[in-house]
Structures are given as structure tokens and as C-alpha cells.
Amino acid sequence: MPGVPSGKACEACRKQKKKCDEKQPTCGRCLRLKIPCVGSGQQRFKFQEEKQFTKQIRREFKNGTLSTPGTSKTSSSNGTPSPPGQLLFIQARPSSSTTRLAHAFTQAIQRSTDIRYNLGSTFGLFLEEVPRRLGTNDALDRAVDAITSAHTDFCTRKHGSVQALTKYSAALRTLRVYLNDPIHAQETNTLAAVMILLICQSIMGQTTKGQWWSGHAEGAMQILKARKEFGPQNEFEAKMYMSLRGSVLFEGLFNHRIQLSEKEWDSLIVNDYDKANPEGRLLQTLSRAPGIMRRARIFLRTGSDPTGVQDELWALYQACKLDVDKLKQSSVNKDLSLAQALPHGFHRTWLERVLTVHYDRIYGIGLVITLFFNCMVQALEIHSDAVQADAHHFTEEILVLAETSENLRPVGSGYLIICLITAWAATRDPELRGRVFEWLCEYQSDFSSRQVSQFQQELQWTAEHLCLGDPLGLRQELDYMDYLLD
């Protein structure tokens, strides 16, 4: 096409006349040099001839009369009458702030964005419907502005810039106002704002000292419990629930303020898409974990088991093992037929890539859920030798995922942090824990610049909590930093 340059290099590479890999949102050279990357992979247009829409005031003779500027009602752009023969230029309005915000957010979620940085393919496809909802809810607008700024920093390996933290704080203040309003608090867009801030906090690495959860999942539950109907109210919410349920389940293991009835858990978790699949069954099983943990702690303190928690826990653990074995088969024998049915091109390549990552991700989450129950079974000393062997095997599987998923860092492999935390808590082998800790520090560094000593303390607290107060033989005098120095 004449006048259209074929190159799609970013501005920095074009200026220096360097070869650009045209990756989005950040090319390899800008990422390596830690400089802003603008325009990578974007088509540029060079217009050969400028044509403007004009309106010309002419003198026209009609029936012997003369139309003059004095009798014409046409005015110039500033409101003054146009002199004879002047051209009026009709200019396009500048984009609104909402349009600019939607465009910036779309760059982070569109399918052409590299899967290593793509928020949509990692945190849920509900994000693709957010841009059209901007401008209708100030809490949602502020949340999107905050995550867009945080994502831009994240792509250039910046942790918590002043601008991103300021926008995040402003979004929290606005959300607080909306949650105090009984009408706004129940809106779909307010729930979307909570979800987006949950994602924003995770990529910014901002958590309260001594805890792994964000607190936003608890806020989402308060919104849902304030409604008459706990389940999704529309298709957009149904998509949000697919992403929200995992966050609520994992936070519910640590945050005792998340208290849901069995019916409410089912409304949140069960859906037509995966209720009969292994991943859906595992999430349903995990929803029973908070109650099991409370009853198991009572059993450890009193020594009596009137509710039969040991037998129930063992049955749930065996069910998890069966389902996680099926997920492993899906991870090994990846079914890409859905993508291969498409013609060769971008959409086929994109879908093959997404499906490949999806199978590994759900297998990793399945391992996490199984290891949660493994920790509790070990704490109750049920079939100890066999259960410890299971923990060793599942931990090795997570280490394989950590090694093979390095090319997805940072966002595409973020799920491995919870996988590695759980693996560290479940295994008793100090050498294996050292390997897990090394990978955990590596992956955690993508999201946070916390000191390793603080990170170790939080990790030990988490392990003790998952194991019902028994850290499974963790020796306080053993310094796992030694494994990092080998």
C-alpha cells in the first residue's frame, strides 16, 4: 500500500536506528535498557496528500438576487461572522479522557499483547468488556487508571512508582465512597472495580505485612452478601465470578472474616462451564477447606473427633489426587484441536499459545489445592509415610512447572508463586525446600522488592498456618539461604 511504512519498531529503536523485535507492550531492547517503550508493534501511516473537509461561502445568484456574507448565517469557528470567501475547517474533536483511558487499558489486555504481560489472558477474559463500561462509574474509572499505570511500570521493571501508588490510593478512596452508598455498592461496575484493584495490588506487590492476601476479595464478598441474590446478575458478572472465585477461596483459607454458607459457596463457584470437570470439582472441594481446618484444629487441641474430621479429610484428599492426575494428563497431552480447527494465522497461533499455558496453569492450581489438603493430613498424622511421599512428588511437579514456565515471566507465570509457597509448606525435605525457596525468590522478585529475611518470615507463618500450627519439622536454626549460595 503506497505511503504506509512496513516497519513497526518502537520510537526509541527508530531514533537509534536499532533493530526492534516489535514485541508488545515492551520490546526486548527497551526492556533490557529499562527505558519507556512507545509504539512497539504499531502500524504507522504516512499521508501523501493532506485533504481537508471545507465549507466555502460563495456568492450565489438565484433569481437575480445576491447572497452576501451580510445575509448569510454562517460563522467561523470562534463565533464571528466569516468574511467573504473564507474557508471553514471542520476539525475533529480531541479524544476525551475516557477514550484515552480505554485505549491505554486495551493495550494491556488485547490479544496481540505478549502473553508475558497480558492481563486478559492471565486474570480473566472479563477484562475485555471493561473498556465499554468506562465513563459510567467513577470507581471503575479510577481502578482502571490505577492498573494501567501499574502495568506500564511493571512492563519496564519498575516497582511502585509514585504515580502508580498515587493513582492506586485515589482509586481506593473513590471505591470506599461507592461502597458506603447502598445503591452504588451493589452495582456490577463497582464489583468490577474491586476485581481490578485486586489485580492491581498483585502486580504492584503491595500487601499488608505478615499476610499474603490483599483484602479485596473480602470486599467483593461484602458486596455480594449485601445483595438479595448472591449469584451473578448478568453475563459480565458470570465471567467475573470465574476469576473471583479462586481469589476468594485462597484468601478464605487465611482470612477468617470470609464466612460463606454452603449455598453461597456454590453460587460463587459452580457454573455450567466446568462443574463436571476436574478443575471445577477441585475448587468445590477447596471451598470445604476453611471449615475442615477449624474442626481439625479443635481435634488437635482436644484429641476427640466427634465430627469425623479425619475420615472426611482423608476422603477429600483422595478425591483431589484423582482429579489432579486427570489435570496432569491434560497438561501432558494438550488438546489443541480447538485452535487447529482455525485457518493458519494470528488467531490460531494465539489460541494455541493460550491453551498451552492454560493446561499448565490449571494443573499447577490443582497441585496447590491437593497440597493444601496434604498439609492438613500430615498435621493429623494420617498415613504419614504415604502422604509425605505424595508431598515430595507434587513438589517435584511444581518445580518442573517453574522451570518450564520461565519464558512466561512475569505475568504469565505469576500463579507459580502460590504453587511454590504451598510446596514449601508441604515438603519436609530441607534440600527440596531449599530448591523451592530459590525458585520462589526468583519469581517473587518480579512482583516485589521485599527483603529476603522478611519474605522468609512470612513464608514460615504461612506454612505454619496451612499445617494447622505444625510447621512439619521446620527447624528454626536451619538457614535456607545457604542453598542460594551453593
Question: Would you kindly provide a written description of the structure presented here, covering whatever features stand out?
Answer:
By secondary structure, the chain is an all-alpha fold. It folds into two domains: 117-204 and 212-252, no CATH class; 273-486, no CATH class. Helices cover 55% and strands 2% of the residues. It has 19 helices and four strands. A hairpin with a 2-residue loop joins strand 2 (61-62) and strand 3 (65-66). The longest helix has 34 residues, at 346-379. The protein is globular, with a radius of gyration of 28 Å. Pfam families: Zn_clus. Residues 59-86 are annotated as: Disordered. Residues 9-38 form the Zn(2)-C6 fungal-type domain. GO terms for molecular function: DNA binding; DNA-binding transcription factor activity, RNA polymerase II-specific; zinc ion binding. This is Zn(2)-C6 fungal-type domain-containing protein.
Which of globular, elongated, flat, extended, rod-shaped describes the shape? globular
Runs in which pLDDT lies below 50 for 5 or more consecutive residues are 47-94, 471-486
Radius of gyration: 28 Å
Supply the number of helical segments: 19
Largest sheet: 2 strands, antiparallel
- Tell me the helix content: 40-55%
Q: Which percent band covers the strand fraction?
A: under 5%
How many independent structural domains?
A: 2
Number of strands: 4
Ends distance:
58 Å
Element order: H for helix, E for strand: HHEEEEHHHHHHHHHHHHHHHHH
Structural class: mainly alpha
- Give the strand order of the largest sheet, numbering strands 1, 2, ... along the chain: 1-4
**Whole-number mean pLDDT:** 81
